[in-house]
Automatic annotation (TrEMBL):
NCBIfam families documented for this protein: HAD-SF-IA-v1
GO molecular function: metal ion binding; phosphatase activity
Keyword Hydrolase listed: yes
SUPFAM superfamilies, alphabetized: HAD-like
UniProt cofactor(s): Mg(2+)
Keyword field contains Hydrolase: yes
Protein name: HAD family hydrolase
Keywords: Hydrolase, Magnesium, Metal-binding
GO BP terms in the entry: small molecule metabolic process
Highest rank taxon of the organism: Bacteria
């Protein structure tokens, strides 16, 4: 396999670190508006996340502290999305990318264009990759499981899908659209989807526990 393509969230880094950073930014924004300490606001959101999942956390937060309005919810969402995240690549990812630096490396990631761009910048991934494809830049209909961005890579590298491997964490969408075309697929068992089992057509060809195993798998 000549070309290596990575997912971003929960594949190259722990997405919860971005969520934590975003909650910190929202807490800093709200502290003077509703006269509650930044730490108390952050802890409320973080606890709510553990118990209820993401859901409508900002709505619930503002209701809880008596400051709810649709405008304030929109402002919180904007702060969360626009903030410069305090996130870093784990050492395992840094080592993995260093080991593979002689191959063409790409990212294909879904999500809000600004949010994903800010993550890629904060993690210094633009300079480590040949190109980073944020699928929503090409229209939401071209997000995974669409093979649209993957076919861009095939054309750019002048290879066949069989020469391209995708490493992702989400079996609900990462592999089902590209496997029938011949792309190779590897699922890293990290993040919120690590315990999910899916029908065979949704699963990757290979599973690994962490990126520390990737070099040996690709060379095997």
């Amino acid at each position: 396999m000549k070309v290596v393509v990575f997912d971003l969230d929960d594949t190259l880094y722990d997405e919860l670190t971005f969520v934590r950073s975003g909650f910190r930014a929202v807490a800093a924004f709200l502290r003077n508006i509703i006269n509650i300490s930044e730490e108390e606001l952050f802890e409320w959101m973080w606890t709510r996340l553990q118990t209820n999942g993401r859901g409508a956390i900002f709505d619930d937060l503002l209701h809880h502290f008596g400051a709810y309005s649709k405008t304030m919810v929109r402002k919180c969402i904007s702060v969360y999305r626009m903030h410069k995240p305090d996130i870093v690549l784990p050492e395992t990812t840094i080592t993995c990318l260093e080991q593979l630096k002689d191959r063409p490396l790409y990212i294909v990631t879904d999500g809000n264009k600004i949010v994903q761009h800010n993550k890629l910048e904060a993690l210094h991934l633009y300079k480590k990759m040949k190109h980073c494809y944020v699928t929503h830049r090409y229209g939401i209909h071209n997000a995974k499981p669409s093979p649209y961005c993957f076919m861009h890579i095939v054309k750019r590298e002048k290879v066949s899908p069989h020469d391209v491997v995708y490493i992702g964490d989400n079996p609900k969408k990462d592999f089902v659209g590209i496997k029938p075309l011949g792309f190779r697929t590897i699922r890293v068992m990290t993040g919120q989807y690590r315990s999910i089992e899916m029908p065979k057509e949704y699963e990757a060809d290979i599973r690994i526990e962490s990126l520390t195993q990737l070099k040996d798998v690709l060379n095997g």
